[in-house]
Amino acid sequence: MATKAINYQILQLLYWNLALYKDKLGQDSFEFQQKSHQSRLLDLKQNGKTRVKINASGCCSSCMKLHNLVLPLSKALRNLPVPNPDCESTLYSANIWCISIYLAAKESDVEAEKLPAAVESIPELPKLADVVKTHERDPPAESEQKKFKQVEDNTLAWILSVLTLSFGAGMSFFSPIAGGLLVLWSIPFFPPLIIRWPRLLSFVKYSWERWALLGIGFLLALLILLVTQLTERKINTSTKNSTIPSYQVLLIEDHSSSTRSRIQVRIVAPEARTARERARVSMNAAREILASQLSDDPKNPQYEYISVILEASKKTAGLGYALAEAEFAPDGKGRQGVMSDVSENQWKWKVRSSKARVNPDDI
Predict the structure, then answer these.
(1) Which residue, among 24, 37, 93, 32, has the nearest Cα to 63 in the 3D structure?
(2) Domain total for the chain?
(3) Is the per-residue pLDDT at 138 higher than 80?
(4) Helix/strand/coil (H, E, C) string of 301-316?
(5) Which of 10, 70, 269, 320 registers the highest number of CB atoms within 10 A of its CB?
(6) Any idea what the Cα angle at residue 251 is, between residues 250 and 255, rounded to 5°?
(7) pLDDT tens profile 295-336
(8) Dihedral class, residue 193 (left if φ above 0, else alpha if ψ from -120 to 50, else beta)
(9) Of 240, 273, 307, which residue constitutes the final position of a domain?
(10) Is 357 a domain residue?
(11) How many beta carbons lie within 10 A of that of residue 24, not counting itself?
(12) Which residues contact 146 (CB under 8 A, 6 or more apart)?
C-alpha cells in the first residue's frame, strides 16, 4: 500500500494508524510499525539530529534490553532495532505491538559501544508526496503574490514595448531601415502576443530572456543607424570634396573682332591646388561668365568665345604666372570662328592647367 504525505510527522501518524487498524482486524501490522518508526527517524534527520536514544519504558523485557541505548541515526535507519521483532507486547490481537520509540539523544548521552544487529526484514524508506501535485491550489498569500508579479510583468511589458515602438518610429526619420526593424521587433513583445511565446519559442522560459532579446533588437537597430549615419557622412564629405572651388574675377576684357565676339577673363581661386581643380574652376568660370556677359553688338549680344585665365595671385595677374586656362566656344568653331576652316581650329573646349605648387605670398 503506497502512503504519502507532505512531511514525515504526518507520515509517521498515517502508518501508525494503519498499523492500529490492521491489528484490530487481527492482521500482522509489524511492517507498518516499522514504516512509522522510519518516518520518525527521517523527521529527526530532517531536523538536523544525528543520534537517537531508544525509550522502551512500559514495553516487554526483551525491549528493555534496548532501553536508553544511544546510537547514530544513520545506523538506526539501517538496522532498525525498534520496533523489536522479538517484542512480547500485544494490543488488540496476538500479533506484535511494540511501543518502544526513538528519541533525540542529548549531547551528554554516551553512545553504546555494542549496537544491536539489523533485523531480518526492513522495508524501503517512506517517501514524501510531491507538494506541487498534492496541492492543486496555492496558498492565498502565495497566490496573491503570484498575481501581483503577473500584473507587474504585464505592465513592464507594455511600457517597454510601447517605448521601443515609439523609439523605432522616431528613428525611422534618420534611418528607415533601422526604424522599421525596431518597430517590427517590438511587436512580438506586446502582452497579447507575448503569451504565445512558450508555444512558439520553447527555449525562452524566463522574462529576463525575453527582455534580452528585445535589447538585442534595440542594439541591432542602433548599429544600423550608426552605419547609415557614417555612410551618409562619408558621402557628404566626398560630395563636399568634389565641389568646384570658388573663384574671384579680377579682370574682364572684350577682345572682339569684326568677325567674332570674344571676351577674356582673369580670375584667382586660392582653393584650387591641383591641376584637376584648376581646370574645373576655369571651365566653370567660363560657362558662368559667358552666360552672364553681353557683347556690344546688338545683333549678336552673346559672346561667341571666352578665355578664362586662372592667375597664381592678384599681384601677378597678367605677368605670365597663369596656373590654368580654359577656352570655350559654344558653337564649336574655336577662337577664329568662320575665318578658319582648318579642323584643328574647330573645337569647343581647350583647357590647360598646371599642377605646380604655388604660394601666392611668395610671388
Answers:
(1) 37
(2) 3
(3) no
(4) CECCEEEEEEECCCCC
(5) 269
(6) 155
(7) 666 667 688 899 999 988 888 888 888 889 999 998 888 888
(8) alpha
(9) 240
(10) yes
(11) 12
(12) 138
Mean pLDDT of the chain: 82
pLDDT, tens only, 167-212: 888 888 888 888 888 888 778 777 777 666 666 666 566 667 777 8
Mean pLDDT (whole number) for 18-39: 91
Rounded to an integer, the average pLDDT of 232-238 is: 66
Residues in the chain: 363
CATH number at 324 reads 3.10.310.90
Instruction: Output the CA–CA distances (angstroms, integers) from residue 255 to 263, 295, 314, 335, 345, in the order listed.
Output: 5, 10, 21, 11, 18
Q: Pick the closest to residue 340 from 351, 326, 329, 353 (CA basis).
A: 329
> Would residue 2 count as lying in a domain?
no
Q: Which three cell numbers stand for residue 129?
A: 508526496
Question: What are the cell numbers at 94?
Answer: 496476538
Contact (CB, 8 A) for 115 and 27: no
Query: Alpha carbon of 329 to those of 76, 265, 276: distances in Å?
Result: 119, 14, 20
Structural domain that includes position 89:
8-133
Integer-rounded Cα radius of gyration of the chain: 53
Instruction: Indicate whether 20 and 96 sit together in one domain.
Output: yes
Q: Are 67 and 41 in contact (CB under 8 A)?
A: no
Instruction: Please tell me the predicted confidence (pLDDT) of residue 154.
Output: 78
Last residue of a domain, one of 191, 224, 240: 240
Residue type, 86: D
pTM equals 0.39
